[in-house]
Amino acid sequence: MADLTNLLRKNRTQAATLAALVVLFLLALQGMEPSDWVITVLRGLAVASVTFLVASGFSLIFGLMDVLNLAHGTLFMIGAYIGWTAYVRPDTLLDVATPFALFIAGLMLVPLWDAWLTRRRVATRGGRVLPWLILVLGLAIAAFGFTRHPITAWDVSVYDKSPVVFGVKLDLGQTDLPTPVTADNTQVALAMLSVLAGGALVALGLALNAARQRVAAPTRVSWRALLPPLGLVILGIVLYVLNDTLTASLVAAGTTLRFFVAVIVATLAGAGIGALMESTLIRPLYARPIYQLMLTLGLGVIGREVVIAVWGRIQMQMPKPALFNTIGKGCPAQTLWDALANQCSTISFMGTRIRTYNEIFIFVVGVIVLIVVWLLLQRTRIGMIIRAGVQDRAMVEALGINVRQVFTFVFALGVALAALGGVLAGPAMGVSDDMGEGLLLSALIALAIGGLTSFPGAAAGSLLVGLLQQFIVKYGQIGITLPFLAQPFKPTPPLVPASTLLLMIIILLVMPNGLFGRKE
Fold this sequence. Notes:
The protein has helices at residues 2-10, 12-30, 34-65, 72-88, 90-107, 110-120, 129-148, 163-171, 185-212, 227-241, 243-253, 255-282, 289-311, 336-342, 356-379, 381-391, 393-398, 403-429, 435-450, 455-478, 495-510, and strands spanning 346-349, 352-355. It is mostly helical. The chain has one domain (12-170, 180-510).
C-alpha cells in the first residue's frame, strides 16, 4: 500500500490526467443509449488498432534510433497496395516475385564487396564519382531486366483493364484473371541475369561509397554469407517455373487463405523496404537529423508518385475475405463462435450489429501486435541488444555484436508494422493514394499524446485518438445536449481531427513529454 502511495505521489500529474480522461469518457457514455456507446467504443478500438500499427512503428524507429521517418504514412499506403495485389491479382505478384528476388540477391552481396575492397585496398579509388556511376549503371541494368521479364499487369489508362475493375470483380465473386504474358526462354534468361547483375552492381556502388566514407568494413567474410543470396536466386527461379501452378492454387484456395497470404506478403515486403531504406539511405545520415527529415519527406513524395504511376489514382476496392463477409442463413450471428462457424459479416450484440472484420478482427490483431512487440523488446535477447545498443553502442560493438544489423532490424520492424496496418485497413477503408496522409497525422498526434519515445504510450495515445474520433462522429449524428442551447449541438466533420489536436494540446500543456514519455 505504501509503495502504491509513493508511486502515485511521484506521478501525481500523470495519475490526475488519466483520472480526468476516465471521468470524461464516463460522462460521454451517459449521453448515449447502450447500443450506441457499444458500437462507438468498438469502432474507436478498431480505429485505434490501425493507428497503433502506424504509431508503434514510428515510435520504435524514433525511440530507439532517433530517426523521424516522415515517409511512414506512405509506407502504410504501399503496404495496402502490395496487399491488394497479392489478394486480388496473385498472378501479377508471382510474376514480379522472380525479378525482385534476384535483385535483392544481388543487393545482399554488399558484405562480400566490402571484404574484397578492403583486401585490395581500392576503397578510395575513383573519387566520389565512381560509386554513383556504378549505382546508376546497376539501376539501369536492373530496370532493363524488369522491363524484359514477362509480367501480367494492368493498364491504368484504360478503365476496363485498370486495377479498380479487378477489385469489383472479386467482390462479385469473379476470379478470372487475364491471360498470362509469355516470353521465350532466351529473353527470360537475359532478363533474370540483367536483374541479378544490376543488383550486384548497386551493391558494389554502395560498398564503394561506404568505404570512401571510411565506414568500418569487414576484412574477412565467411562463405556462409553466400547462402542467403544463393537461396534467393534459387527461390526466384523456382517461383518462375511454378508460376502457373501457384497462381491456380491461390485462386482456387478462396479469398480467406489468399487474404492471409496477402497480409504476410505485405508485412514481409514492408520489412524488406525498411531494411533497404536504412542500410542504403538512412545509415549515412545518423548524425544529420535535418537531412533525415528532408530525405524521408522526399521518399514519401516519391513513393506516392510511384504508386500513382503503377496503380493509378482511383480508389480501389479490397473486398473482405469470405471468413468475414457472409450474409444469409445464420447471420447476423449471436455469438463469436457462430460468427466464425457461419463466416458471418456481423454479430448481433445489445441491439446493434457489430462488423466482425472492422470491430473485432482488426482490434484483436492490434492487441496481438502490442503483446508480441512488447515481449520482443523486454523478454528476448534481441530486445536486450537493442536497448543496450541505444544506451552504449561502442560497448555492444566491443562484445562482437553488429549494431548496424540490429538497427536495420529495428527499422525494418517499424516499417513492417506500418505495412501490416495498411493491408489490414484496405478492406475497411479502401485503397487509395492519400490513405497514408490522414493515418500519419493521427499517428503523430497519438505519439505526442502518449509520448514520442514510449511504445506503451503509442498504444495509449492511439486508444485516446480512436475513441475521441468515434465519439465525435457519433455525437455528430445524435447531438450533444448542452446548457443554454435549445437544440442538441451536433459536431461537424471538421471537428473530428480538430478534437484530437485539442486533446494533444491540453495534454502537452499539462505533461510536456506526453502521458508516458521520458524526460530527455
